[in-house]
Design a protein that fits this description.
The protein is of the alpha/beta class. The protein has two domains: about 170 residues, Rossmann fold (3-Layer(aba) Sandwich), CATH 3.40.50.2000; about 160 residues, Rossmann fold, CATH 3.40.50.2000. Helix content is about 45%, strand content about 10%. Helix 9 packs parallel to helix 14 and helix 14 crosses helix 15. The radius of gyration is 21 Å and the shape is globular. Belongs to the UDP-N-acetylglucosamine 2-epimerase family.
């Protein structure tokens, strides 16, 4: 949302007010600092050992007071976090219109990913205006009965943020990353955190990675390890102390994006990386059996490989040894955005409130 906040702040007739719940305090603060955003409201709800019940309840209650004070004409929420659902529900209780940014993503399985699939579906059921990143997302919304005039296909704001953050001359402050000869090594960037993969599925992924590093002497793995103990324990057991495997602390947004730009390949169970990495020409192997971003699979920038050890090993080995296969993925067109999503959303808001009589043109990556 950061580039959208900046875009709206420059728009005549629009006053953006920023409310954060800080359900992940450390992850939030570094992004606010990077983009120079000072929240107007900060609920600071994060607590040690928090559950989904805790986050949801504290967010709704805190946002009740925020909305009473701010009295906004429109509440914008993004994506599929618990904060997103809570904010949409809080706005609904006060009968304030809701705009859903990154609307319409679906897997069709309410437990995959969990709880994100239901967070976005419930936010979408409440929303009055839907800013869908792609035509596929638009079709999902239409099938759910959303009126066509309430949907805007904009591309995804995450691509706007990414393109504003990558720097050719970026220098890493982390000593492990600074020491990697990126021009001489092929770096596999790995992230894992999905609840449905905890335990044995993750162990199989890590065993495949260890086998690949042992087989290919020019391959290095960089793995920003999620802070959850359920992830960390298995990572340390399988990959701790393995040569050319760098287990680092979770990275701030800016160094992470620039690390991705220098990597050869991305392996992840994240949703957002399926959009970000292809914008940088990086193939993505998704450690899941379902995805809410099927456009990337169709375009060829992403493969669903799941967590089976042999299947993952075979897919990575192919991309390490068959240059044609690698180039097909690396050079495929990213369907998720051109860096102009925020401008389209601003135009849509101007149209919604009658500041303009022209709706923004749909984003179409095939054009």
């Amino acid at each position: 949302m950061a580039p959208l906040v900046k875009e709206l702040a420059q728009a005549e007739g629009i006053q953006p007010l920023v409310a954060v719940t800080a359900q992940h305090r450390e992850m939030l603060d570094q992004v606010l600092e990077l983009f120079g955003i000072v929240p107007d409201f900060d609920l600071n709800i994060m607590q040690a050992g928090q559950t989904l019940y805790d986050i949801t309840a504290r967010a709704i209650k805190g946002l009740e007071e925020v909305l009473a004070q701010a009295q906004p004409d429109l509440v914008l929420v993004h994506g599929d976090t618990t904060t997103t659902f809570a904010a949409a529900l809080a706005a609904f209780y006060k009968q304030i219109p809701v705009g859903h940014v990154e609307a319409g993503l679906r897997t069709g399985n309410k437990y995959s990913p969990f709880p994100e699939e239901m967070n976005r579906r419930l936010a979408g059921a409440i929303a009055d205006w839907h800013f869908a990143p792609t035509a596929t997302s638009e079709q999902n919304l239409l099938r759910e009965g959303i009126q066509p005039e309430r949907i805007f296909v904009t591309g995804n704001t995450v691509i706007d943020a990414l393109l504003q953050t990558v720097k050719d001359d970026y220098r890493f402050h982390d000593e492990q990353l600074a020491a990697i000869p990126f021009n001489q090594r092929r770096v596999l960037l790995v992230t894992t955190h999905r609840r449905e993969n905890w335990g044995e599925p993750l162990r199989q992924v890590y065993l495949a990675l260890r086998q690949l590093v042992e087989e290919f002497s020019d391959v290095e793995v960089v793995f920003p390890v999620h802070k959850n103990p359920a992830v960390r324990q298995v990572v340390e057991e399988v990959l701790g102390g393995v040569e050319r495997v760098h287990l680092v602390e979770p990275l701030d947004y800016e160094p992470f994006i620039n690390l991705m730009a220098r990597s050869y390949l991305v392996l992840t169970d994240s949703g957002g990386l399926q959009e970000e990495a292809p914008s940088l020409g990086k193939p993505v192997l998704v450690l899941r059996d379902t995805t809410e971003r099927p456009e990337a699979v169709v375009a060829g920038t992403v493969r669903l490989v799941g967590t089976d050890r042999e299947r993952l090993y075979a897919n990575v080995k192919e991309l390490l040894t068959v240059q044609e296969a690698y180039q097909r993925m690396a050079q495929a067109v990213n369907p998720y955005g051109d860096g102009q999503a925020c401008r389209r959303i601003k135009q849509a808001i101007n149209w919604i409130f009658g500041f303009s009589d022209q709706k923004p043109a749909k984003y179409d990556y095939s054009v």
